[in-house]
Amino acid sequence: MSEQGLEKTLFSKEEIAEIVAQLGRQITEHYETSDKELIVVGLLRGSFIFMADLVREIKCPMITDFMTVSSYGDATESSGDVKIVMDLDESITDRDVLLVEDIIDTGNTFSKVVRLLKGRKPASLRICTLLNKPSRRKVEVDIDFCGIDIPDEFVCGYGLDYAQKFRNVPYIGIYEGPVE
Ligand code: IMP
Ligand code: MG
Q1: Overall number of domains in the chain
Q2: What is the CATH number of the domain that holds 70?
Q3: What's this model's pTM, rounded to 2 decimal places?
Q4: Cis peptide before 45 (omega within 30 of 0)
């Protein structure tokens, strides 16, 4: 069954699970020998479903935290302006930080969050994104763990929204509904 405005499936539930499992294996391999505490930080709201699945595929001890930054409002274009709406509860100083994002598009949001978190002196800071739109990049972002590259399309489902809708859709589809 498809959701109105989201008819074209880009990745099925099963394909997403395979990508997430693969990321989990890479991340586990990277951190299993570290003696620092791992903190996995999800950027809300887009990453909440991916984060929930991903952490269960990472087989090493960790703590989790979330942060909300605002970028788009309800539009489909990044303004380049990022502000912290909700900060982390945990300190990241001297911890291994894995920052988890649903999608990296222009890179505006992420580059600013990375700069901010680096200022808090983590032992290390790595970046994981489920989706990557390299053709849209305006600011360079070094992605350590990348799920999959996608073309320049606006996608929704599996946590990703258009005007806060479609986050609950279990697959990832291309949004073709009306643009408000
Ligand atoms: P950036 O600052 O342009 O890299 O945008 C990052 C944020 O924009 C992501 O965390 C998403 O919340 C949102 N975003 C970018 N592209 C899409 C998309 O295709 N669908 C849904 N949200 C998107
Ligand atoms: Mg987001």
Answers
A1: 1
A2: 3.40.50.2020
A3: 0.92
A4: yes
Mean pLDDT by 10 residues, the chain (180 residues): 81 98 98 97 96 98 94 54 86 98 91 91 98 93 97 96 95 88
87 belongs to a structural domain: yes
Whether residue 180 lies inside any domain: the answer is no
In-domain check, residue 72: yes
Ligand 1 binding residues, C-beta < 6 A:
46, 71-72, 78, 101-110, 154-156, 160
Per the structure, the complete domain to which residue 26 belongs is given by 6-175
Res 110: pLDDT: 86
Instruction: Tell me 27's DSSP state.
Output: H
Distance 54 CA to ligand 1 centre (A): 19
